[in-house]
Amino acid sequence: MSFFGNKRLIIVLVGLVLLITIVGFTSRERSKLSWPEMFLKDTFSVVQGIFYRPAQAVSGFFQGVGDAYNVYEENRTLKASLDQYTRTTAEIHELKAENDRLRELLNTRDSLVKSFQLRVAETVARNPDTWNNTITIDKGLKQGIKKDMAVMTAKGLIGRIQSVSNFSSTVELLTSYERRNHISAYIQVKVPTANGGTTYQNISGVIEEYNAQERLLVMRKIAWGQKIEANQQVVSSGLGGVIPPNLPIGYVVRTEPDDYGLTQTAYIQPSADFSQLNEVMVVERDFTFSPSGEMVPTQPEQPPASQGGK
């Protein structure tokens, strides 16, 4: 037993010596490798090359799929962010436009509130079939709106109240081709005075219709011989008994003689933008005309007295 035990020990020791010798021999820097080393190295290189290329191809394929998915996810995220940015930008622009409109409306209201009683309303309906004829606002009889009251934006007159219900009203626009009510107006002309200054002279006329092709109001019955130039302002005269005076209507574009050469016709560019009628003001004049033709101050409506019961 001891012999076999010693034999195994001797074999192990010899193996260790050989291993240490080989490691020491191969670890040295040599110019040439031994043939067993070259054989083993070539064998491992061939085997490694056989498995390396498919492994690289499979790895590259899965890496390409992963990269493509990452690009897809990134593109979807960027597209969602772009859509959100577009919506946010549109909302900001709409809020800015609304803020500008309301600010301009407030400034106009403050300048007119001393002369007229104004009620601010919003447009709630505008039929595409009657786009140039009427709009519907959210104020009615319960808010003191009456038929024939003037309606304007911050920039100028747009029409009058055509019909009224309890909580809404229909506004007939100046651009309506069905409009039958003419508007008495003045063209404000600057004229020199004797002392070297200037003053304004009002040249009267009547706005009778709307030229849809040129998008201009047509003002007729202007006295012949009156010198009228472009860009002179046109305002309501108030002589018709319905529309209050001095409401801006527009500016003169050009004039021409009528068919008979007795009066002049002026074409007026409206001050108001009829494509943007979001917020409007209903104007109540401070007087009306009696049947005898006299001006009577408008009396504010008093709420009905409550009836007490016993």
TrEMBL record:
Region Disordered: start-end pairs: 290-310
Keywords: Cell shape, Coiled coil
Domain Rod shape-determining protein MreC beta-barrel core: 124-284
Classification via Pfam families: MreC (PF04085)
Coiled-coil spans in chain: 78-105
Highest rank taxon of the organism: Bacteria
Keyword hit for RNA-binding: no
PANTHER family in alphabetical order: CELL SHAPE-DETERMINING PROTEIN MREC
Family: Belongs to the MreC family.
Function according to Swiss-Prot or TrEMBL: Involved in formation and maintenance of cell shape.
Protein name stated in the entry: Cell shape-determining protein MreC
Protein species of origin: Brevibacillus ruminantium
